[in-house]
Every structure is written in structure tokens, then in C-alpha cells.
Design goal:
Blueprint (H helix, E strand, L loop, with lengths): L1 H11 L6 H25 L1 H7 L4 H4 L4 H22 L1 H21 L7 H6 L2 H10 L9 H17 L3 H7 L4 H5 L1 H26 L2 H21 L3 H27 L2
Length: 259
């Protein structure tokens, strides 16, 4: 997410790059991501211990309390970076952090586990434009494309741990759907995102660039299909392929549309 946000920041500010604002953007993105991950680890510490996951808390490198404190500190820092970039970016930072912590604290084990991702992921490009101080109308396409990619990557991220999550009572959307149906929904969402990116890119952007970006993202998605059918490690590799495809699609779309 950090790479995608910074890529959009570079595209947004290409006519007048402002390194100071890009540094603030990097701080916002990094702190937001750390705040989400650290609180997630603190909340999940008992389940991770029961499942034998070798994370820092279980390895004794840091306490659960210290992890939670660092998560809160990082979250507040992300809001500070957002405020320094302006009121609009601050509001986006609040929404992004609220989505992350709502997932960590309440929605992870529910059928609504995907909703925070569907809301938060489309915000990432807007962070980049917030750093540049402008919000072109074509960015509205980022919402449906980003929401679909969020569904795909959330399910793909959860697939390697479906068996462990079921055993420990973490019943998120992927666990409830099961491996086969969750993989099918992830694939369909990813394909729909590619289609929307292609349609919007051909309509508003540089056609060869968007065709190349969509083609490469599609190739990564197709490569994830056989990998996802070979057990937890294969599913983990498939998730990485989808994540790479998402980054390629985002950068290709931004380079083609040049909003």
C-alpha cells in the first residue's frame, strides 16, 4: 500500500514535485499500515499462540501491551501527518485508520470482514492526490476498482489461514465461504477490477499504457490460479501474485490516465 500511495503521489505532483509533502505522505502511509498490523497482532495474540504462529509477540520479542501502545502511537502519528497535508487528507486518514481498527477490533471474525478493506483501499490513491493538493474527477473510478481489488486481496490474504482460523474460531468471510468459494469470489472480483480499469483507462487515458498494465496484471492473476490450489503455501504465493498484480494495475492505470 505504501508503494501504491507514493506512486500516486508522484503522478499527482509530477508538474511540481514537492519532496517535503511526499515525505509527509510516506510517513502517513507507513504509520497507518503499522498501526493496522500492530493492533491486529495484539488482538490476535492468544489465537496466534494457539495456532503456533511464530510472530514477534509469541517469540517473546515484544509484549502484547507494548505492541498495542505502539499501534496507537503509530495511528496518532498517521493522523498528524494527514493534518500536516491539509484538512481533506486528514479526513481521509481518519477514515483509513477507522477502517483498519474497526477490522482489527470487531469485524475480523464476521461475515463483514471485507467491508473495511473495500472502503479503505480506494482511499490510497486519494492520499497521493491529497499530498499534491488536488482531486481530479477521474479519480472517482478508483472507488469501484479499489473496492473490487480489496475484496480480491482480502480473501486471497485470508485463504492460507482458513484451516487455522476455523480451528481457532476466527470466522471471517473467507473461513465462512470455504477455500473453493472464497477463491472463486477473489478471482471474480480481481477480473472485474481489471475490466473496470481497462474500460476507464481506454476512455480517459493512453491506450497502449493501460493495455500493457492490464495485460501484465491479468498475467499475474492467471499465474495465481494454479498456485492457489496447492495448499496453504501455494495460497500464500498466490496472494503475493495478486498483490503484485494490484500494484501493477494501479501504476499502469495512473500512468495511462494521468489524472
Amino acid at each position: 500500500m505504501i508503494a501504491v500511495g507514493l506512486a500516486f503521489g508522484l503522478v499527482a505532483g509530477r508538474e511540481e514535485l514537492r519532496p517535503g509533502r511526499l515525505a509527509l505522505l510516506a510517513g502517513l502511509l507507513a504509520c497507518n499500515q503499522y498501526a493496522a498490523g500492530a493492533l491486529n497482532d495484539a488482538v490476535d495474540a492468544p489465537a496466534d499462540a494457539a495456532a503456533g504462529r511464530g510472530k514477534p509477540i509469541q517469540a517473546g520479542w515484544i509484549s502484547r501491551r507494548a505492541t498495542a501502545v505502539l499501534a496507537v502511537a503509530a495511528g496518532l502519528a498517521s493522523l498528524g501527518f494527514g493534518l500536516a497535508l491539509g484538512p481533506a487528507t486528514f479526513a481521509l486518514a481518519v477514515v483509513g485508520l477507522a477502517c483498519a481498527w474497526t477490522y482489527d477490533l470487531w469485524l475480523k471474525g464476521t461475515v463483514a470482514s471485507v467491508l473495511p478493506f473495500a472502503v479503505a483501499l480506494p482511499i490510497v490513491p486519494l492520499f497521493g492526490y491529497g499530498a499534491a493538493g488536488r482531486f481530479p474527477a477521474v479519480l472517482w473510478w478508483a472507488w469501484p476498482i479499489g473496492a473490487l481489488l480489496a475484496v480480491a486481496t482480502h480473501l486471497a490474504d485470508a485463504l492460507p489461514d482458513v484451516e487455522r482460523d476455523r480451528a481457532t474460531g476466527v470466522l471471517g468471510l473467507a473461513t465462512r465461504l470455504g477455500v473453493g468459494r472464497a477463491a472463486a469470489v477473489a478471482a471474480a472480483s480481481y477480473a472485474a477490477a481489471l475490466l473496470l480499469a481497462l474500460v476507464s483507462g481506454l476512455d480517459a487515458g493512453d491506450r497502449p499504457v493501460i493495455l500493457a498494465g492490464v495485460a501484465l496484471a491479468a498475467a499475474l492473476g492467471l499465474a495465481a490460479l494454479p498456485a492457489g490450489g496447492s495448499g496453504p503455501e501455494g495460497r500464500r504465493f498466490a496472494y503475493r501474485l495478486l498483490l503484485a498484480g494490484m500494484v501493477v494495475l494501479a501504476v499502469g492505470w495512473a500512468a495511462a490516465v494521468r489524472p
